[in-house]
Design goal:
- The structure is a single chain.
- It is built from 21 helices and five strands.
- By secondary structure, it is mainly α.
- It has a domain of about 110 residues.
- Strands 2-1-3-4-5 form a five-stranded mixed β-sheet, covered by helices on one side.
- Helix 1 links the parallel strand 1 and strand 2.
- The longest helix has 25 residues.
- The radius of gyration is 30 Å and the shape is elongated.
Length: about 500
């Protein structure tokens, strides 16, 4: 919905055009600018003192390309701006044809919306007042950042210059937010944090403050790693809840859903599973209501991951809803269009199928579909192209094999050993000390259970196990790993003692 904020005296004239000339009345509403304040959205247009003006678009309703501070009010220009927001691009360009400079800028916005390449050399301003100097630098940065441009030079220069030349702290914050996104996507988290830290928040609108606060909270959530300091988690939860409350009150559903995903993650690592499930479920619903299909399915994946962890923490009743969530997500994240997400789903389904409780006679069926899911994941996460993911799936597949019912013609534990060996071929001690140690312990467990009927003593396997135990102790990735290694060592020593005693005449 596009809302036009203007004096009531203008309503009738504009309504006649909206309702009769263009038949877009159902998409346009009116607000009295003397009694209502527009929110920070590009879908709100302000008509005052003979000019069309634009709020700072903190809701990301449109690409962050800045038009002139004020455009002389004309009904064809107003309709061009409305049509642009409704996705009626041809009409927008036609209505702005009498103003070539504006039409050129609208074309750039359309290219940003459709993913077409934008040439930064086409950016210009007609005057060089403070605002135009600022927006020139801002737009140069935006077009290079978001515009599928072949000219990636000077992005940071233009961002920094725009921030320093912004005529208000609100506009400086707006540019800094997008510079933050650029740095965040590059993994330059300290620099991203620094950009927002320079903003004087007291001079920024409440919408802007909440956007910056939510962005900073998202950065800190992304950087979380164990052990999780309780005080830090509580601080993050408080900041996110402030944002969620603000967005809920003002009806900013997309922003609320994004904050709920971070809140769900924090609740999940705090093992407040019921709380986290509520956040994820609401985020899915909000994205669906806004027609953001991919985002809703991404949120569904996070919900499925949470349910899986909850089930593995001694609550097996959540395996089935986790499985159903993954299966539902797989109908959107298909192998053809989203191969990596599809592979992740198949990997997680393989784990769930191997662990879901059921009567004994159905376990073989679950084992078959589990194996099929792992094999499907490995067709995408290959050893050559995705070595780390390949190793992880092999490790999970090996663990699953040890839970399958014993096959008639093959030994699941021996097969598990082959997958653990594949994982170990990738997980070297230097880069993956913890992951390698976990895989070594799984390998030892499989060795104890593997069929040794051809040679009960199996000196070759005992020798291999001794090498793995020695390596575990040498890696020393933690006290728990060393303790587990010594338990295996004691079992081997006992076995060797028995073998030695049996060999005595």
């Amino acid at each position: 919905m596009i809302t036009l904020f203007c004096d009531k005296a203008l309503w009738d004239d504009i309504k006649e055009i909206v309702y009769f000339d263009y038949s877009i009345g159902e998409w346009v509403s009116f607000a009295d600018s003397s009694t209502m304040r527009p929110s920070s959205s590009a879908n709100h247009l302000i008509i005052e003192d003979g000019y069309i003006r634009f709020p700072v678009d903190w809701q990301n309703a449109m690409p962050p390309y800045l038009l002139p501070e004020g455009i002389m009010f004309r009904t064809d220009v107003l309709m061009a701006l409305v049509m642009l927001r409704l996705g009626e691009f041809e009409n927008s360009l036609r209505l702005s044809a009498s103003l070539p400079t504006l039409q050129s800028e609208l074309q750039m916005i359309i290219d940003l919306m459709t993913g077409g390449p934008v040439d930064p050399n086409l950016i210009s301003v007609e005057t060089y007042q403070d605002y135009d100097d600022y927006r020139l630098m801002h737009n140069h940065a935006i077009v290079r950042h978001y515009g599928n441009s072949s000219d990636l030079s000077k992005i940071e220069y233009f961002y920094r210059d725009a921030i320093s030349s912004a005529p208000s702290e609100e506009l400086a914050a707006f540019t800094a937010f997008h510079f933050f996104n650029y740095l965040f996507d590059q993994g330059r988290f300290d620099e991203a944090k620094s950009q927002l830290g320079r903003i004087v928040l007291s001079d920024v609108s409440q919408e802007g403050k909440m956007k910056l606060q939510a962005s900073m909270a998202h950065l800190h959530t992304t950087l979380l790693s164990p052990p999780y300091p309780e005080e830090h988690l509580e601080s993050l939860k408080e900041k996110l809840w402030q944002c969620v409350t603000f967005y809920d009150i003002h009806g900013f559903k997309i922003e609320e859903a994004q904050c709920l995903l971070d809140a769900g993650f924090i609740a999940g690592i705090s093992e407040s599973f019921s709380e986290a499930l509520g956040y994820y479920s609401k985020a899915v619903k909000l994205f669906e209501e806004e027609g953001m299909e991919e985002f809703s399915y991404q949120a569904l994946l996070q919900k499925a991951r949470l349910l899986t962890i909850w089930a593995q923490k001694g609550n097996p009743q959540f395996y089935k809803p986790a499985m159903e969530a993954y299966q539902r997500a797989s109908r959107f994240f298909t192998k053809e269009f989203f191969p990596l997400a599809y592979a992740e789903i198949q990997e997680n389904l393989g784990i769930i199928y191997s662990e879901i409780p059921d009567e004994a006679k159905k376990k073989s069926v679950w084992a078959a579909v589990s194996a099929s899911s792992f094999s499907e994941a490995l067709t995408i996460f290959t050893k050559e192209d995705f070595p780390s993911d390949y190793a992880r799936i092999c490790s999970h597949y090996g663990n699953a094999l040890m839970k399958y019912p014993q096959a008639v013609r093959s030994d699941n534990f021996v097969k598990a050993l082959s997958y653990f060996q594949e994982a170990l071929s990738i997980r070297n001690a230097e880069e993956y000390p913890v992951e390698r140690s976990i895989t070594l312990l799984n390998y030892l467990e499989a060795c104890w259970n593997a069929d040794n009927s051809a040679d009960e003593n199996n000196p070759g396997r005992l020798y291999e196990m001794q090498i793995r135990i020695n390596e575990l102790i040498e890696i020393n990735a933690g006290e728990d790993f060393v303790r587990e290694a010594r338990v295996h060592q004691e079992k081997i020593n006992q076995l060797k003692s028995i073998i030695s005693g049996e060999s005595q005449p």
